[in-house]
Amino acid sequence: MAEELKIRVGAGLGTGTAPEAFGAAVDLLEQAGVDSLWLPEAVYSPRIDPVVGLTHALARTSKLKVGTGVLVLPGRDPVLVAKQLASLAALAPKRVLPVFGLKPARDAELPLFPVPQGRRAAVFDESLLLIKALLEQEEVTFDGEFFRVEGVSLGMRPVNRLDVWLGGKAPGALRRIGRLADGWLASFLTPEEARAGPEAIQKAAAEADREIEADHFGISLVVAEDGIPDALAASIAARSDADPSRLIAGSWKAARDLIAEHIDAGLSKFVLYPAGPEPIERFVENFVEHAVPLQN
What we know:
296 residues, 11-stranded parallel β-sheet, two-stranded antiparallel sheet
């Protein structure tokens, strides 16, 4: 099965890319022929806002695809999110890669995305349904528990269907992907853990009379240049019993080896982030040398 999958590797920018260097970093990725750029959501950090960064990157490139990895959805107005996506897809066809998540990575940012107590998952489901309806239907009437619209249209729809991927690794998250989404972008899973994801997602999809494309499963990986930093290893150890080297690549060779194992587990899309504040030029140079050749 692995030989039939379309392998693609995208680059994520680390915290070492200052806002004033963002444009030059985007240009460098485009010039190097990198498949895609991925922008995580981290409000209380130096990272560029993913929607703003995505817009800027698409405006200054012609080939580079840009994705959100991942954007918190519950707590945002799904109609406005759908309008943003439709607008970006109109301006940069086939280059917008939305990935949504249930909640921010940092608990301190949770209040920034308010939802009714205990209903975050339900809001997520309903938001996804409404977004997909607005992107795919000429006129939408939606009467949900949290959102209601009657006979509305965004005035534009993507010419090419916009696939919506989700993050997450809990059983409920995998079932949601199977029921409602078009792909899975995981993170901080060992190859052994990741192997169970596509099967669980496809099972949920089949129960909903759907099927997820076989090459719509991926994972984000962090790559260190010279061994996993102690602080990062300690952070991983605090939330996982797994060997940090099974979650984070301590070198570019280790990254290639981990990717090969994930491909064997049924994944085919990869996003590589630098582990530390290394210069973007060096990261892209290593990315082109070690990661790009893995694509088919």
